[in-house]
Amino acid sequence: MSPRLAVVDLFCGVGGLSLGLQRAHFEVVAAFDSWDLAVNSYNANFAHQATCVDITTGLSLPRCDLIVGGPPCQGFSSAGLRRPDDHRNSLVRTFGELVARDRPRAFLFENVEGFLTGADGKYVFDLLEPVIEAGYRVRVFKLNAANFGVPQHRKRVIAIGIMGSNPSVSQPTHTAYGAPGAHLAGQHLPKTPSLEEAIAGLPPASERGQVPLSLDHDFTALSEDDLRRARLLKPGQRMRDLPERLWHDSFRRRAFRRVKDGTPSERRGGAPAGLRRLVGGEPSKAITGGALNEFLHPSEDRPLTIRECARLQTFPDEFKFMGGSRDIVQLIGNAVPPLLSEQLATTLMNDLHNGPQVNGTGVLLSFVPTLSKGMSPVLDAVTRKVKRRFQHVPSASQLNLQWH
User: Fold this and answer.
1) At what angle do helices 377-389 and 122-133 cross, to 10 degrees?
2) Considering the entire predicted model, what is its pTM?
């Protein structure tokens, strides 16, 4: 048996990437993060230990075959205000420069879809310029985790590079449904598990404070006003479907904000949702740090529990999370779903063991920011800039990806 390939996980969080990599038979030899609660959670679940450190301080990494990571994305996430000057955005370049400096055989990068258009594409170049100059052959593509069996619609950007060989694009395993554009990949495959299927088998959730904590499967009861709202919301409905008199004040402010308020449009984030009743027979909406405040159980008048959020992220029930409930749901929402990680890692493992060697310099082999026929003006402009900078990048149709 060939020796296991060694991995360093940067910005490891609680270890969603690491868990999937281990399942795909990589050996994680080091992990790093700057949030102590993330490191404590990671260390409660893995035999090797993560280190709490500022990754921008000239970090010395052990020798490895693969560097992976998802730099913190809040600076350009659609879940909140987009801040092009957010210091966390520079961590994308830090990741690229560490890969270029240490030159492992491969790298795997994951981030939110806002990474593509943030600061008019600056972060795409922050990643690609150092790694392509170092000699990596790179593919960049966007996917929906629901197409890989994760029971939630979670769109993410993946970049994979290999030194001296061409990386493959992992192919969908499931047909996604229940969201706009979900049909664009993985047709004629088994259906993605629904929310109800993902949380099936858990005991009844308990109200916090009434019984001892079990599997993080308890919840804070809704306020009287929110309970009144919840009772009116049908599956799939959200705050805007309620009478305006029942809107949260914060939702009302966000719903009616205007450009004239002085906030640049690129910093506005996504449209507000407020309370939302999830649909049990479909994959969930993406689990984020706001899931405990915004998502209602499909059939019960209560929020989701931490354990339900963890299941929707495909963490096993025995996985432990450290901190208060707000911190824990943020840790879960930040994570790469282990099931998605495992499937990306399995494809990469096969490439590293069996992929033909290619002579040549670093190159961007493909850049597929969407499977849709249309693009927003900003994404179209970024795509054009990428293709001008890294010439001979084929289109999705020219690649003949087996995504249909």
Assistant:
1) 20
2) 0.90
